[in-house]
Amino acid sequence: MSKLFLVPTPIGNLEDMTFRAIRILKEVDFILAEDTRTSGKLLKHFEIATQMHSHHMHNEHKSVKGIVQRIQNGETCALISDAGTPAISDPGFLLTRACVENNIEVDCLPGATAFVPALVNSGLPNDKFVFEGFLPVKKGRQTRFLLLAEEKRTMVFYESPHKLVKTLGHFVEYFGADRQVSVSRELTKMFEETIRGTATEVLAYYTAKPPKGEIVVIVEGKK
Q1: Is 126 left (phi over 0), alpha (psi -120 to 50) or beta?
Q2: Average pLDDT value for residue range 121-142
Q3: Which residues form the Tetrapyrrole methylase domain (predicted)?
Q4: CA distances from residue 105 to 5, 27, 79, 135 in whole angstroms, order as listed
Q5: pTM above 0.85, yes or no
């Protein structure tokens, strides 16, 4: 049956790849990858020889129609991102929506995603939380911080290493120096670390020790 599979891939540790994910990637007619060079290494490791095509934020608007047509013609497709679950701060939403609108079955496999382990090991309340992903870089950034300053749920952010110190400084400015923060870096990898403390303490730590790698920031909601 023609179908779109959304297949999570490891965020660092290849042992987190599921048996089902490997089987699906071997069985589908073609794979869409955010970066074929990055995904090529993953496929080679698991001896997956399925045809792969590039599907990323710069071409997804143009390629969605053609992909939908291929699936409607009877092919099965798997979408993967560089790491984690597709459509979580990565390409995937546009294609998923188009498939749903065209009555194409979509099957999202469970698997790796960065924010869940970061949230759970933060020690901050996780019964209710809001996923913010990446903050605006310039336009709308101050407006977003002013809005989030009143958010009572735990907040989840993705951030790049070269912007982390600036963002932590904004947490101190808009949320207060004593707001609890947890920064998880390089999850599942050799140099994984989680630094917890007040916004001021975590800012001081990363000011003295510039971070590297993939970063998830968990911030306590307003009390």
Answers
A1: alpha
A2: 95
A3: 3-202
A4: 9, 16, 13, 32
A5: yes
